[in-house]
Amino acid sequence: MKNKPLRVTDLAWEFLRPVLKPGDTVVDATAGTGQDTLFLRQCVGESGRVFAFDIQAVALQQTKSLLDNSKSVDNVTLICDSHEFIMTRLIDAEIEEGSVKAVMFNLGYFPGGDPAIITKVETTIKALSSALRLLSTGGMMTICLYPGHPGGAEEAQAVIGWGEMLEAPFVAHHFQTLNRKSPPTLVIIQRTR
Ligand SMILES: C[S@@+](CC[C@H](N)C(=O)[O-])C[C@H]1O[C@@H](n2cnc3c(N)ncnc32)[C@H](O)[C@@H]1O
């Protein structure tokens, strides 16, 4: 961290860390390389449950090997499907609405993969709205936005507009760097009651 600019992915972890407890149920809505899935798994421990979505099998393979290397795959369910189906997939796993402590979205494309396979406005907003219903009281959703790639600015605007419209018991925050061109930004949603 020393001498390096803060990254939205690190900020998301710092906000989530004090919220998460052993035994919590959590979701990584965009598994990618698996870094966030592993972080969530470490926070909720062996008694927690982690669900990780990605539309690309290659991303879930990478996530699985990261978890295997950390000997932590036992309570992680990897789902090769779009996060727009988050609600049905969790209900199928007997997870109830209002019982998920955290949902992480890290939008954009698979690092090192095909930059044409990206998260899209319509499915992202659908997934975010479903994820809200899953969130427990005291729960938190983190959304890392990357306006610098094609389609990213449109998606970031849509997510920020969606957050601005949320009503109680949700509180929406937006954290951004001021002096860089198209910097990644972080939206956080809290459910306060
Ligand atoms: C920026 S990466 C995620 C990085 C990841 N959290 C990590 O720790 O490495 C975005 C991921 O979203 C995935 N993705 C794109 N559209 C998706 C969708 N509709 N549902 C779920 N995942 C999707 C991509 O395949 C890609 O792996």
TrEMBL record:
Q: Which InterPro entries match?
A: MnmM_MeTrfase, SAM-dependent_MTases_sf
Gene3D superfamilies from the entry? Answer: Vaccinia Virus protein VP39
GO terms under biological process: methylation
Metal-binding listed as a keyword: no
Q: What is a GO molecular function of this protein? A: methyltransferase activity
UniProtKB keywords: Methyltransferase, Transferase
* SUPFAM superfamilies xrefs: S-adenosyl-L-methionine-dependent methyltransferases
What this protein is called in its record is Methyltransferase domain-containing protein
Output the lineage of the source organism.
Answer: Bacteria, Bacillati, Bacillota, Clostridia, Eubacteriales
